[in-house]
Each structure stands twice: as C-alpha cells, then as structure tokens.
Amino acid sequence: MDSEELLAFLSAVGHAQRIRIITELAPGQLYVSELARRLGVSRPLLYMHLERLEKAGLVVGRLELSDDGKALKYFELAPFDVRLNVDTILAAVRQDASDEAGQHSPEGS
Amino acid sequence: MDSEELLAFLSAVGHAQRIRIITELAPGQLYVSELARRLGVSRPLLYMHLERLEKAGLVVGRLELSDDGKALKYFELAPFDVRLNVDTILAAVRQDASDEAGQHSPEGS
DNA sequence: TTCATGTGTAAGTGGAGACTGACAGGTGTA
DNA sequence: TACACCTGTCAGTCTCCACTTACACATGAA
Fold first, then answer.
1. Per-residue b/e over A47-76, b at no fewer than 16 CB within 10 Å?
2. d(CA B9, CA B56)
3. N or C: more exposed end of chain B, with fewer CB within 10 A?
C-alpha cells in the first residue's frame, strides 16, 4: 500500500457519516434506498459517500434483481485490517519510491 | 477511544501534507521554522497542521531555549499505534454510548 | 395510467478548511 | 541601530467537498 492508497483509505474512514455507514453495514448488506432511509440521508449524498468508500476498498456494491423484478443496488463491507503507526506510514511513503522505480507491473505487496 | 477521538485521529493523518510532516519528524524533533523550510510551507499553515496533529495526539510540541537565547518551538512524534478494521470501528462507536452513560470521569480504556 | 418503489446523474449552493501575506514581538550579533 | 534569526496570530482568499433539489428512466401493483 503506497501513500496514495493509505490517504484514500484514511480520508474515507475519517468522516462521521461514513463511519455511520460502516456501522450500518456491519450486520449485513443493504441496498441504497434502504440505507438512505435508515441514516436519514439523501440518496445522491449517500451515493457520493459509497463511491468514496468503494474506491478506498472498504465497501463493495453489486446490482441485484429482487423477486419482484426491481433492480436493487446492494452494498456490503469489504474485509479490511490496517495498522496505523509511524512505521506503517513510513512504509507507505517508501512504497511510493518503489512504485516510481517499478512503474507499471505493481509489486502486489 | 470513542468515535470522536477516532475521527480526529483519522482526519488528522488523512492529509498529504500532514503525512509529510510525520515523515519529516520521524527521525527526530525539529523546530517549526526549520520544518517549514524543509517542507517548503508557510509557517502559519504549518502551525495549523501541527495544531491539528497535536490535538489528535500524534505530535507534541514544547518551547525550548537554545544556547544562544533564542526560543525554539520543537515538535516531535508521539507514539501511537491504532488498528483499523470493522471491529475496532464498531468498538469506538459503542464507546460513545458508554461515554454518554458514564458522563464525566472517563474510562481511560 | 397513475402511484409507489427503485437506480442513476446533473447542476447548483454553502461552508469548512487549506493556504497566503502581513503584522507585532522577542533575542543575539555586526 | 540595523540585521538575521525565531515565535505567534490576524485577516483575508480560494478551493474542495458535503449537501440539496431536480431530473430521466425503469419496474410492479392498484
């Protein structure tokens, strides 16, 4: 994980509304409209937050057809576990240099 | 750690400039003007970032007198180690309820 | 055909926070 | 006195992002 990914991750979680989203999704998947109702949030706003969380890899969404033929966009938490201390931050910054050197073909890591 | 503290921590680290500050302070303490020069950042701006980092407990500053009588404000990293996954986030949110119940006299955790 | 449900996006507003420049004050040295 | 350092803060600008309103488009049921 380089510093860019780390930053995306941290700024995604570091927001009160998105913490609430994570809390709400913890028990299991929910579709967007239902989630918006529970949080008392407008749907477009929720989309923005979900998009941000998805880009950071915290959440995954998939379109599903319900029994009665309605398209429902379900979101669920993606497993993540990040440790945050001086060493892990420095490691992320150092990773940038490696990315630079390797260019294409990422190191996985 | 309740969700408010967690949020302060995450939004403090989740910023490119502040990551750079942490990187720069990792080898050892520095005083503000020197740090500003290294980062190529104005001093007032640096103060803002340092204040934010200090409030989140990532950094500590102290005023010191150099040998030649100049006052220097040194900052150094505070030790921190936070693990971030669904469980730790939920734990922070649950902590809010405990804070509410206990009111004053914090639980230290 | 109308209503209630859902997805998805475009366009605009408002406010917080990132950032700058300029100031006032202190010290030691030439 | 003047200069080169330092700390600390105020007042302003500007940019980003959180948020709203409104739209287009589907489906199934009354």
1. eebbebbeebebbebeeeeeeeeeeeebbe
2. 5
3. C
At B30-48, the pLDDT tens digits run 999 999 999 999 999 999 9
> Can you tell me the distance from the alpha carbon of A17 to that of A56, in angstroms, rounded to the nearest whole number?
15
Q: Which residue has the tokens 């409030």?
A: B55
Q: Write down all domains in chain B, each with its CATH number in brackets.
A: 3-104 (1.10.10.10)
User: Would the pLDDT of B105 be above 70?
Assistant: no
Structure-derived torsion over alpha carbons of residues B87, B89, B95, B97, reported in degrees to the nearest 10: -100
- B73 CA → C29 C1’, Å: 22
**Lookup: tokens for A109:** 């890591």
B107 CA vs C8 C1’ separation (Å): 46
Cross-chain CB nearest to B89 (options A6, A19, A90)? A19
Per-residue buried b or exposed e for A7-45, using 16+ beta carbons within 10 Å of the residue's own CB: bbbbbbbbbeebbbbbbbbeeebbbbeebbeebeeeeee
If you count residue pairs, one on A and one on B, with CB atoms under 8 Å apart, how many are there?
82
Question: pTM for this structure?
Answer: 0.90
| Percent of residues in chain A assigned helix, strand, coil, to nearest 5 | 55, 20, 25
* DSSP summary character for residue A36: H
